[in-house]
Specification:
With about 260 residues, the protein is α+β, with helices and mostly antiparallel strands. It is about 45% helix and about 20% strand. Strands 6-7-5-8 form a four-stranded antiparallel sheet, with helices on one face. The chain has a two-stranded parallel sheet with strand order 1-2. Strands 3-4 form a two-stranded antiparallel sheet.
Length: about 260
Amino acid sequence: MRGFKGEEARKRIKKAVEQTSLGDVIAKEIRALSKGFRQRVGLAQALVHEPPVLILDEPMSGLDPNQAAEIRDLIRDIGRERTVILSTHDLGEVQVTCDRVLIIAKGRLVADDTPEELRDRAGKASYQITLKEDADKRGEHSSFAAYAQSVLSKLPSVASARLRDAEAKGEVIFAVTPKDSADLRSELFQFAVKNELTLLGLEKKSEGLDKVFRDLTTGDTSGAVASTKSKRDQKIEEARDKKKARDAAKGAEGDA
């Protein structure tokens, strides 16, 4: 097994079985296992020699939601001890599993950042505010919804407030778009308090990675990675450039 024999092989197999929770099915043939457990067997086989980097290609493919959740938790546990590279087109899975995202288009690296920072670069966030309908508050308008929409639209930082279909009776929901990138949650909360409205929900909605992926992988991708690098990476590069400049200056002084 991976070049290991005797006691050393038994120790490594036992550890891999424990890591992947295969103890209950260890005596079964692989063909008798569910796809979720077969995925676990593949992970265990890869872990026997304790590699510093583990590359997984579409590990959630074909799994039902319960199996996918189990494999996802397993990948997170493995990631605490070693680097796990997840190759996948399932960007929803990337958002919940990965803490760093690299996007490649036409052989070129076009993004290298955290999921959160990539979503922030996708553009302005939108906000969903849910109010309890109050028939006594309508002012000069025909309905509470029209009244609330009118007041919302007049807020300094709000570009638009669009009425959405209510999810439950007695609720009024608006999709609110800001004029700039400022966080509107505080202003929307104060709007509800000032107008004595019952706030049932307030949610900030960022663009998903699907849109980021489409934007970065269509059209001209040259230089795209530079615009998506995190502030930390930019500072590291700046420090390296300064060191190169100092070394070059010292070399020039030595030649003189």
